[in-house]
Structures are given as C-alpha cells and as structure tokens.
Write a structure and sequence with these properties.
DUF7835 domain-containing protein; DUF7835; four-stranded antiparallel sheet; mainly beta
Amino acid sequence: MTSERHTSQTQIERCENCKCETTHTVSVEIRTESMKQENTEFSREPYRITTCQKCGETTSQRMNNA
C-alpha cells in the first residue's frame, strides 16, 4: 500500500490510550489500496491520520467509512 501525506494540523480529541482529551496532529493521507499495478489509479482512498502528542499513539480511519 503506497501513501501520499498532506498538510497536518493540531486538534483536541479523545485519546483512547490516554483515556482523556489531548492534542493530536491530524492529517489526510491518500493511500493506494490495490497491489495490482493496473488498478492503482482506481484504488486511491483518503485516510484521516491522528497522532496523540502526549503518548504518540497513531490511528488511521478510512474517510469513505467515516
């Protein structure tokens, strides 16, 4: 799976690891989900990537499933 990262911002969100609201770095990443070369242009999906600034826990969520 390949990816392309875009600009990040910070936001206050709940961290399940810390069990409280913390500052997170939030960005959108375009990932290619297909490993087949002929399908890569049709399999690009946006993912929301969050990283807790307190504990470092990173999560990703496919935006089409949000």
